[in-house]
Amino acid sequence: MKFIGKITKCFSKQYHFYSSPKFKFELVEEVPELIPEKKVLVVVEGNRPDTLAFKCPCGCNSNILLNLLQDAKPCWKYRITKRGNISISPSVWRKVGCKSHFFVRDGRIDWV
Prior knowledge:
Layout: H1 2-19, E1 24-28, E2 39-45, E3 48-55, E4 63-67, E5 77-80, E6 86-93, E7 101-105, E8 108-111
Parallel strand pairs: 1-2
Antiparallel strand pairs: 2-3, 3-4, 5-6, 6-7, 7-8
């Protein structure tokens, strides 16, 4: 029975990955009070991006803010794909709250 549970969990994560709607990106000058669902906000200060802001994709409704400034640690990078989708690296691993661990690749959530 444990094996069936593991297989079910594996397939549910894969199904969730393939069925999850794409995260769109938007450039903004400041983090709004309410971060929209399924959007990654690229917060630009001056002439360079400094933060990524989005809702946790697990549904816990927490805001995630990721640093883009290389002078401060930890630091993430992002790129916009040829199709106009966002990818973020490295993975996002929440140490508090829901403790979700995921990648954002080509606008989709890839659960770890």
